[in-house]
UniProtKB/TrEMBL annotation:
CDD domains: AmyAc_CMD
Coiled coil (UniProt feature): none
Pfam family membership, one: Alpha-amylase
Database matches in Gene3D superfamilies: Glycosidases, Golgi alpha-mannosidase II, Oligo-1,6-glucosidase, Domain 2
InterPro entries: GH, GH13_cat_dom, Glyco_hydro_b, O16G_dom_2
Lineage: superkingdom: Bacteria
The protein's name in its UniProt record: Alpha-amylase
Glycosyl hydrolase family 13 catalytic domain segment(s): 172-523
Length: 628
């Protein structure tokens, strides 16, 4: 098969950069650049603003409130709230790509008490020409702009991700493609159904497969959008409060969640805030009636080809919501709470986080956490790490796509070495704010299946999964990956082919399934694999040193060694244990290999503080300390 492009990770201009460049071109940019990223009670917050050097902006002010109202003011005269005047720094912001320079202004909002919502606006003006005036982030090439600039926000709190997330292993189900119940019509096949048609998966089908899901060892389900929707994927809701009839009833979802809870499983539901379908009642009314009460919910304009309204990715069936409108914000917050309270879901996976503003997600997180502190909010943020961190405090965590990209290049496409991956991981992990959790993803509903990228080579998938299951961060398994499900064709944008019907019965790769079950069992067995720290360990080997590596997961009580061979040759790997075990008491006599060896071959002797581990091509081993 021809080498494929991993299109989901193709180079593109990020949403943040597009917004920043447009705002700077206009004159005054902010883009929610604050320090600290996730303000705690008692911490003052520094606001950074960026001014186009070619614009005669000579004063900059920030207007803020702490009572939830929207601040107002202009040219340093406050109408609602408090005004602060920014100071010009000597340093400047330089964009090496464009050669563009911006002046940096900063102002410090005083520390606030726990539970305070700080809302603020900013503007700039010329002292020499009273007609020249700018609002911060007045333009937005991504979503609906605000004529008087954006109203920004942050929340002061001590909220954290729920403890149960740190123990979770997640199974992602694309509902339409997973299973139907025994007394329902069977799922269509790709031979008799178009890849973007409905295939017939249902909630009752999932309920009947809970025994299978539980046998994997997973303890959290993530279900694709369940809203009524005209599309097979459901990411354009027509009704934010009811289950799509093709999936079942509202009561069926309640039954599924109750049964999952009885088995000790949590349930995450997909939530879409950026856009609706063109069948949503608010859009239909606004589209047909210019005086509709919902007219401000969308952005109708004659300059949005090929339609008269803004839509996500210019897809006319996905009209974009004006999420900064108070009514829209309240509607979406209420809908999200409804899925948690009425249906009993444990958390929300947030679709296309980069669309709505940071202020919207601040409000959303406040609504969710105030009512349900143990609910999880985790975002799909397809941005560089430098932009992902800006969402700290605005949601609990993120899908770690930067790591996914490097993981897939290393194990599937083989364009990076294992040592490059491990070095990346060390640097990458240090960039993540302490208050943000992450999910480790090998593939999902928007990416090519890992096996498709790996030319069907199962050993590559096994090695990638061993890496995934032994890292810090919560692993997510995309349905079917555990039984060798791939796809039948390539795609360059929306990859519906990676949403193939689930493989059941004889179609399943039982060897792959057993490998997944073993790795999941080990992650449950050794708490250090879930919550321990990680440190890379130097190794020697008789094969390409760039493709062999090791790390430990450790805490005060335990230590586990993970060794990987990403070469296509058998490898003898030599690990010096002195440094690894220096705080673990006397040097043990053996390490016990717990992943890939038979019991009679599991004990690995230690000589002079060194252990030798033999690995097959594209192989992995997990070793724990053993005194016998």
């Amino acid at each position: 098969m021809t080498q494929l492009i991993d299109f989901f990770f193709s180079p593109y201009t990020s949403v943040h950069k597009r917004r920043f460049d447009a705002a700077i071109e206009d004159g005054l940019a902010h883009l929610s650049q604050i320090q600290p990223l996730d303000p705690q009670p008692g911490q003052a917050v520094t606001i950074s603003l960026f001014v186009n050097v070619n614009k005669p902006i000579e004063r900059v002010a920030v207007y803020y409130t702490t009572d939830g109202t929207e601040p107002a003011g202009e040219r340093g005269i406050v109408e609602r709230g408090t005004v602060l005047f920014a100071e010009l720094l000597e340093q400047q912001h330089y964009n090496a790509e464009t050669g563009q320079t911006a002046r940096i202004w900063q102002v410090c909002i005083p520390a606030q008490k726990d539970g305070t919502l700080v809302r603020y606006r900013a503007d700039g003006w010329s002292l020499s020409d009273s007609s020249l005036h700018w609002y911060a982030d007045r333009v937005d090439p991504v979503t609906v702009a605000q004529k008087k600039g954006r109203c920004f926000a942050y929340h002061v709190d001590r909220w954290e991700a729920p403890e149960w997330w740190h123990e979770a292993i997640v199974y992602q189900i694309f509902v339409d493609r997973f299973s139907s119940a025994q007394d329902e019509a069977p799922l269509h096949s790709e031979e008799n159904c178009g890849i973007t048609d409905f295939f017939g998966g249902t909630l009752r089908g999932i309920i009947e497969k809970l025994d299978y899901i539980q046998s994997l060892g997973v303890n959290c389900l993530w279900l694709s959008p369940l809203f009524e929707s005209p599309s097979h994927h459901g990411y354009n809701p027509s009704d934010y409060h009811h289950v799509a009839r093709r999936y079942g009833t509202d009561e069926t979802l309640q039954q599924l969640i109750q049964e999952a809870h009885r088995r000790g499983m949590r349930v995450l539901l997909d939530f879409v805030a950026n856009h609706t379908s063109d069948e949503h009642f608010a859009f239909v009314d606004a589209y047909n009636n210019p005086t509709s009460r919902y007219a401000r919910w969308y952005n109708f304009t004659e300059i949005e080809p090929p339609h008269t309204y803004r839509s996500y990715a210019m897809v006319h069936t996905m009209p974009e919501l004006s999420t900064d409108e108070p009514e829209v914000r309240e509607y979406l917050n209420g809908a999200a709470l409804y899925w948690l309270e009425h249906y009993g879901a444990d958390g929300l996976r947030l679709d296309y986080v980069s669309g709505p503003s940071h202020a919207f997600w601040t409000s959303f997180q406040q609504a969710i956490k105030t009512a349900h502190p143990e609910a999880l909010t985790i975002g799909e943020i397809t941005s560089p790490m430098s932009e992902i961190v800006d969402y700290a405090g605005r949601m609990d965590g993120f899908m770690d796509f930067p790591l996914s990209a490097m993981l897939r290049r290393t194990f599937a496409l083989r364009s990076n070495t294992l040592q490059e991956l491990l070095s990346f991981l060390d640097t990458h992990s240090q960039e993540i704010p302490p208050s943000m959790i992450r999910a480790v993803v090998v593939d999902n509903h928007d990416m090519h299946r890992f096996l498709w990228l790996a030319d069907g080579q199962r050993d590559r998938l096994k090695l990638a999964t061993a890496f995934q299951m032994t890292l810090e961060g919560t692993p997510i398994i995309y349905y079917g990956t555990e039984v060798g499900l791939s796809q039948s064709d390539d795609a360059h944008k929306e990859n519906a082919y990676c949403r193939a019907p689930m493989a059941w019965g004889e179609q399943q790769d039982q060897d792959m399934l057993a490998y997944y079950r073993r790795l999941i069992a080990l992650r449950h067995q050794y708490r250090v694999l879930r919550t321990g720290k990680r440190r890379q360990i130097a190794v020697d080997s008789d094969v390409d040193s760039a493709q062999v590596g090791a790390y430990i997961r450790y805490n005060d009580e335990d230590c586990v060694l993970v060794v990987l061979n990403n070469s296509e040759q058998p490898a003898r790997v030599y690990v010096q244990l002195d440094d690894m075990l220096k705080n673990s008491g006397p040097m043990p006599v053996y390490l016990r290999a717990v992943l890939s060896r038979q019991e009679d071959q599991a004990l690995l002797p230690i000589h002079n503080g060194q252990v030798e581990i033999s690995l097959p091509p594209l192989g992995a081993e997990i070793c724990c300390i053993s005194q016998k």
